[in-house]
Design brief:
The structure is a homodimer.
Chain A (H helix, E strand, L loop, with lengths): L1 E8 L4 H7 L3 E14 L5 H4 L2 E7 L2 E10 L7 E8 L2 H10 L3 E15 L2 E8 L3 E9 L4 H14 L10 H8 L3
Antiparallel strand pairs in A: 1-5, 1-8, 2-3, 2-6, 3-4, 4-5, 6-7, 7-8
Chain lengths: 173, 173
């Protein structure tokens, strides 16, 4: 599946603006994201990610491929639910992957038409929004739709870096 | 968890012998096992295994570490349930693992005291039995118990090779 995603730093009044556009609250999730690096290629260089996300409702393993364009952070994404994230972490470490970073965030999700808008309070980084569209055939159209929502929220500048990359930047790595 | 396991080629009358020792039928499972190899170390050389097992009841990812002794095939084993084995296979391939082999078998399981006896009809290899004991603290005692069950079944010769290794041998790889 191709996930079209755009992201921006968020001002404090963003939730009111999302409501003003007709966005409807979906819910709030707490994410504990464990990122892994490969023993034989550096995912920071190849622009890939391998992540275990632990939420209240359960855990998932997700692979994200390299970004597909220069404007958004759209990429191929593969996900599987797992029942035991600790066992999965041990398996990944046993076959040579190493934990690269941990990202904690509180995500408040809104639905706006076909899009999902996530307001993320990320520990150590601040607040961001991500606009996601997925599942459609025409990803150029989805990309325009996602960038249009950012513009309507008054957020012109899209960030293509992941939270993992932003945290590494912040820590001077 | 340490899994103590011994294995032997099985004669045709083995199920009657298991019943004669007091073994109780647990059930029959069909296994489709996909084995993967690592891009940076050869699991055939390091005596490790990474496997997706697909059964009627669901799928699991399992890592098996190198064997722990010279008499049995006891080893560290880590397992996680997954909801989508196809997606997991794509994730493993995306991060560089390659499918090394597929093993299909029909497993009939019996309980005998603390042990589980599996009678495996393996496509392309024939019939085998595996005696498993796990969860205990004293794995030397479990090993003796498992080898004793083999002896009581009249099977003196324990095989330490996995079905993957036996299939590779059969194919002259």
């Amino acid at each position: 599946m191709i996930e079209v995603e755009v992201k921006a730093r968020s001002p404090p009044d963003i939730e009111a603006k999302i409501a003003g556009l007709g966005g409807e609250l979906i819910g709030v999730e707490n994410h504990l994201d464990l990122y892994f690096n490969s023993p034989f290629r550096d995912f920071a260089q190849t622009d890939e990610a391998l992540r275990i996300r632990i939420k209240e409702e359960g855990a998932r393993l997700t692979y994200k491929g390299p970004k597909l364009d220069s404007e958004t952070k759209s990429r191929r994404e593969l996900t599987v639910r797992v029942d035991d994230p600790k066992a999965l972490e041990s398996i990944l470490e046993s076959v040579g992957f190493s934990r690269a970073a941990v990202v904690k965030k509180r995500r408040t999700k809104y639905a706006l038409g076909e899009a999902v808008i996530a307001v993320d309070e990320v520990e150590g980084l601040g607040t961001f929004i991500e606009v996601e569209l997925s599942g459609g055939e025409d990803w150029e159209a989805q990309k325009r739709a996602a960038l249009d929502i950012l513009a309507r929220l008054g957020l012109a500048e899209s960030i293509r870096k992941s939270y993992l990359e932003l945290l590494n930047d912040a820590e001077g790595r």
